Amino acid sequence: xxxxxxxxxxxxxxxxxxxxxxxxxxxxxxxxxxxxxxxxxxxxxxxxxxxxxxxxxxxxxxxxxxxxxxxxxxxxxxxxxxxxxxxxxxxxxxxxxxxxxxxxxxxxxxxxxxxxxxxxxxxxxxxxxxxxxxxxxxxxxxxxxxxxxxxxxxxxxxxxxxxxxxxxxxxxxxxxxxxxxxxxxxxxxxxxxxxxxxxxxxxxxxxxxxxxxxxxxxxxxxxxxxxxxxxxxxxxxxxxxxxxxxxxxxxxxxxxxxxxxxxxxxxxxxxxxxxxxxxxxxxxxxxxxxxxxxxxxxxxxxxxxxxxxxxxxxxxxxxxxxxxxxxxxxxxxxxxxxxxxxxxxxxxxxxxxxxxxxxxxxxxxxxxxxxxxxxxxxxxxxxxxxxxxxxxxx
Length: 394
Description:
With about 400 residues, the chain is α+β, with helices and mostly antiparallel strands.
């Protein structure tokens, strides 16, 4: 009986020992070595350089206001209304201006009638001067009579000039009234869509704003945006601006549609920074925006490495090598060399690697690992080569 028990114990000992060793093995978190293929022959891989978040805005947007104060008589829009450049979207009450315009037009008519009378009188005085001169040559009239006739003709000529000036003044007043009437119309400054309605019919508005209206709106009654050119307004730390280049490609993802990325391109890096926040504003155009992209949506932008100039201008395209990436957390420094720990069948093996450029939370590896291999993230201190480890979550 003792021999049977001893034999059973001897048979179970290796398994028990392996179980105990496995339980004592350090638990580690692991990641996978990845490979990014080139975007195209002769091009470079679309590798991430920087991630930033911001909001979708229209490149061309305007708070449309009134030129003259008054009560709104009619509105021709709601949120979502498409408008054409120059179309009337609202009108201010203008009965008083209509009356002024009518009075100005009647003044023109009156001045024109006065000019007809003055012209007739001038012509008659001119003929009278000719008659008096003829009589004076014959010695029939006196010099005083001729002088009086010439003076009357000069006065008539001056009255004609005054009447002509009065007509010009009256017509100018008509143009002023017409301009005032036109100023009661609010026109769209460009083709676009009304994205915000700021007033209602019957409200009193002013170019400088009124009580209860935000000062920054300054009498605005609508916000119009050109939805044909949408972009992401984001901010980048001063320390990261050097990573960005003009027309740099980017990937844009809306918080509402994470599974549908859009093509972006860096349009502008603002010429000044915010010294209080140590940030620089950046604008990224959304190249293929569709109806799902709406102003003020939250978006993230992943800036990507642009193809090198040599690759773009080269006439002979050669296949580019794929890029191998490992998580930054997997890289450890030992004996002054970069190394990672490869896990295979629960055994950790140290392997030296040659690093390249950093890519967000990853780093390029020129040699030392292969795509698909499992690496330890944040290797625990004291880890030795060919150590048994337990993978977290298994």
